[in-house]
Design a protein that fits this description.
It is a single chain. The strands form two sheets. The protein has a two-stranded antiparallel sheet. With about 325 residues, the protein is an all-alpha fold. Helix 1 packs antiparallel against helix 2 (about 35-45). The longest helix has about 35 residues, at about 170-200. The protein is built from 13 helices and four strands. It has a single domain (about 1-315), classed as A middle domain of Talin 1, CATH 1.20.1420.30. The chain is about 80% helix and about 5% strand.
Length: about 325
């Protein structure tokens, strides 16, 4: 029953995020807002809406293990499983700007998160906590990232300009309202199912957050990247993963910590380290070999790393 709650919650979250993005994009277009701005804000936010919904509800209800586990697990799943599967479908070429800016920015975000999370080692604090001030630092870095996106979008508007369908105003407003309602409802179902499942199985909430919840909330990214790779759109395939990872750390964890400081669960530093390793591996794979691309061999390596990590989490539980 608890697993059913989580599955149903994921379905509702995906529907809610889709309706919210489509409704808000239509309203923005009616108001004369450019497709570029919509792509950099509404659509980008929409892909991270499932993680955001789960984390905000977890923070409000005091389930910080699920909140942090969801983000770290999502980033690990995005990099190793989603990017790995996309590379297996078709080798993914990497743009120069992705190698020079986006991937290093993700790596920087992962390193900053590790520093902000380890106050015991670095500042002689009594407990490792992502504090409200740390959340503010993450949000400020997110603003820098969005400003960079805006500048890139101005240079190449097509890269950030989605196709937007203009609907009737009442329908767009209704889609936004129902989208928000579904995000809240789906998020509550996932958190409820995850907490109950952890209690029933006698495992920590972080394990459920790192595995089932993280994989569930990353389903939109999985579908987007694999289909993009199949259709020879490598920018979308890798940009979706890197952008989602940055959004998860800077925006979602920043907002979550702002609501309620996040205590690190036992073993969190291993997941934080794997999050950093994800950025390093992406950078190494992107610059090594001919043609700057993720080939099938590297896809196999990424998927095998995730399977080993998943096996470790199961044994640990």
């Amino acid at each position: 029953m608890n697993l059913l709650f989580i599955i149903l919650g994921v379905v509702i979250l995906v529907l809610g995020a889709t309706w919210l993005v489509e409704g808000a994009s239509s309203i923005a277009k009616r108001l004369g807002i450019s497709a570029l701005t919509i792509g950099l804000t509404v659509v980008a936010f929409g892909t991270s809406a499932p993680e955001l919904s789960v984390n905000l509800i977890s923070a409000i209800e005091g389930n910080s293990d699920i909140a942090l586990g969801n983000i770290l697990g999502s980033n690990i799943f995005n990099t190793f499983m989603i990017l790995g599967l996309a590379a297996l479908v078709k080798p993914i070429g990497v743009q120069h700007s992705t190698v020079k800016v986006e991937i290093p920015f993700f790596l920087l975000s992962a390193l900053v998160l590790w520093v902000l999370s380890n106050e015991v080692f670095l500042d002689s604090a009594e407990l490792n906590v992502i504090s409200r001030s740390a959340g503010l630092v993450l949000l400020l870095l997110f603003c820098v990232f969005m400003y960079y996106n805006f500048l890139v979008g101005k240079e190449d508007p097509a890269s950030a300009s989605p196709e937007i369908e203009t609907r009737k105003l009442w329908m767009s407003v209704l889609m936004v309202i129902w989208g928000l309602a579904f995000l809240v409802g789906g998020g509550k179902l996932i958190v409820l199912g995850a907490v109950n499942m952890a209690t029933k199985l006698g495992v920590s909430q972080s394990i459920i957050g790192l595995t089932i919840v993280a994989a569930g909330t990353s389903l939109p990214e999985l579908a987007t990247s694999v289909v993009a790779a199949y259709r020879n759109k490598p920018d979308i395939a890798i940009g979706n993963v890197v952008g989602s990872n940055i959004f998860n750390i800077l925006l979602i964890l920043g907002l979550t910590a702002g609501i309620n400081p996040i205590k690190l669960y036992s073993g969190a530093n291993l997941d934080l380290a794997l999050n950093i390793a994800a950025g390093i591996l992406m950078l190494v794979f992107a610059v090594s070999g001919p043609g700057r691309k993720f080939d099938r061999r590297e896809g196999v390596i990424l998927v095998m790393v995730y399977m080993a990590y998943l096996a470790y989490q199961i044994i640990k539980a």
